[in-house]
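Schema walk-through. Below, the input block comes first and the output block second. Nothing else is stored per chain. Lengths vary across the set, and this one has 205 residues.
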Amino acid sequence: MYERGKEYEAYQQWLKARDLEPTNPAIWNNLGNYYGHNGPITNAFKCYEKAIELDPTEPLYIRNLATVIYLFRIDAMEYYNLKEQQVFDRAMELYHKALALEPNNFLIATDLAQTYYGIKPDRVKDAIKAWEYALKVANDDIERQGVLTHIVRWKIKEGNFDEARQLLNQVTNPIYNTLKTRLERNILEKEKNTKSTNKTELLQK
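--- output ---
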């Protein structure tokens, strides 16, 4: 309750600041953050859009808009008059724009790559490419190994099981042990299913 109270106090200050400095993009971004946490979400869209309008070269504002669009897809569908898959494309377009402004930003790169999990049908090659870019801009070994687990997931979807194993062998940090075990099991199951399907198809010919 205390934190919510402090946040609301800050919100009141930002409203006053907006009235005093309506062309300050940081204020609009802060208001967007408040609405993103507390609603209404449509106000978050409007505030981030205003921040971007005032400073279109600040990647943070663009990333924030992309994130609320991605997280609140139902609201975004109604607000922007889009279908769900178009909402994913809209979020991705914004992440690409933010990443172009700050190409070494690992968080933006991973946000962009994560978006592919929501898109149907799967865009496997594009997803792998996005995660490989995130791997390139990772800041440390923990981030790199975390990204590798995502690339492994997509390599499994691609049916490239040998490469998935090779990449998974590079994941050695104990914090990923549980996930690594699950992915190893997934590789075995998918590989078995693929071989079984191929065998059935051969018998039918």
